[in-house]
Amino acid sequence: MSMAQLGNRLYTGESSVDFVGRRKLWFLIGAALVLISAVLLWKPGLTFGIEFEGGSEFRVSGSSDQDTAREAVETVLPGTVPTVTTVGTNGVRVQTETVTTAQLDEIRAELVDRLGVPAEDVTSSSIGPSWGADVTNKAVTGLVVFLVIVSIVMALYFRAWQMALASLVALFHDLVITAGVYALTGFEVTPASVIGFLTILGYSLYDTVVVFDKVRENTSEAFVKRDRTFAAAANLAVNQTVVRSVNTTVVALLPVAAILFIGDLLLGAGTLRDISLALFVGMLVGAYSSIFIATPLLVVLRSREPRVRRLDEDVRTGVVAAEGAE
Asked: 60 — phi, psi (to 5°)?
């Protein structure tokens, strides 16, 4: 059976996956992933780039000898453990704590001498701790503002606070798991990573809105026809959009996976790798949360409403009585 045929059968209700009925399983999986991610965020924790913590950075072109680069820094700063990573196929990046201008020049000279590269192939820069703290504060502020605006827009668009809350829970799920993967892999959190985080939140929200739009359409019809329960109408909406969600996610993941592969294995540390990991993981968990978390949680949140209870009772008893569309 092709994806098109499967999608048609799911859309018409000929075939159905009980996403809402098995919500306890999906919630358990999601909670386990969030818990594991939270533990990883505690220990070993996130590795922040110098843009957030401050420090000095040296980039060398024409040599990928990490051990020699590390020795050059330790000669000037005894007892220091610099972070040395490969950049591209023939370059290294060295990060240390913030050093003085004199130490900056000494380390550059040592790198030039030990690695045998021209002086112009070694660049250096320093970022103070206060500037890094300012970047961190702005990143957190941007995230908070994003979540507040999302809550307001969702509540106004769907005219239901439950949908806004379910969307926020799904976004929290996506953000924590993505951050947990960064902690697990040791990838640095840089401004590019933050951009990736915000991007995946937007992607996840878009996916959730598409599903919720179908949920609203189906449940409004159910309130009029009294032919299926609220949960059944919501579950049908997920079935009708799941193939679209899967196809969209797979198509989006293919180029991101290519970027992640190139950025990690060929180009080394850099903006491409920093942002592509956030996009790759975020798109995966975002697709999961929009299908398995958001709508089942919405059903739980609305199940105690008198109107929903009356609908469910009428369907169970076979009563058909029109009630205004929601």
From this structure: -120, 130
- For residue 129, whether the previous peptide bond is cis, meaning omega lies within 30 degrees of 0, is no
What is the full DSSP assignment across 237-280?
Answer: HHHHHHHHHHHHHHHHHHHHHHHHHIIIIISBSSHHHHHHHHHH
Alpha-carbon Rg for the chain, nearest whole angstrom, is 26
Enumerate domains of the chain plus CATH numbers.
Answer: 3-48+131-317 (1.20.1640.10), 55-127 (3.30.70.600)
Average pLDDT over the chain, rounded to whole? 84
- Cα–Cα distance measured from residue 209 to residue 281, given in angstroms and rounded to the nearest whole number: 20
- Residues 8 and 192: their CA atoms lie apart, in Å, by 40
**Is the Cα dihedral 111, 117, 119, 120 positive or negative?**
negative
For 56-113, give the DSSP string: EEEEEES---HHHHHHHHHHHSTT---EEEEBTTSEEEEEES---HHHHHHHHHHHHH
Q: Which residues contact 230 (CB under 8 A, 6 or more apart)?
A: 219, 222, 299, 302, 303, 308, 311, 312
Which residue type occupies 11?
Y
Rounded Cα gap, residues 324 and 28, in angstroms: 36
Q: How many CA atoms lie within 13 A of 277 on its CB side?
A: 26
pLDDT for 143-183, tens place per residue? Answer: 888 888 888 888 888 777 888 899 999 999 999 999 999 99
Q: Which two tokens stand for residue 223?
A: 């309130």
- The values of phi and psi at residue 83, to 5°, are -95, 120
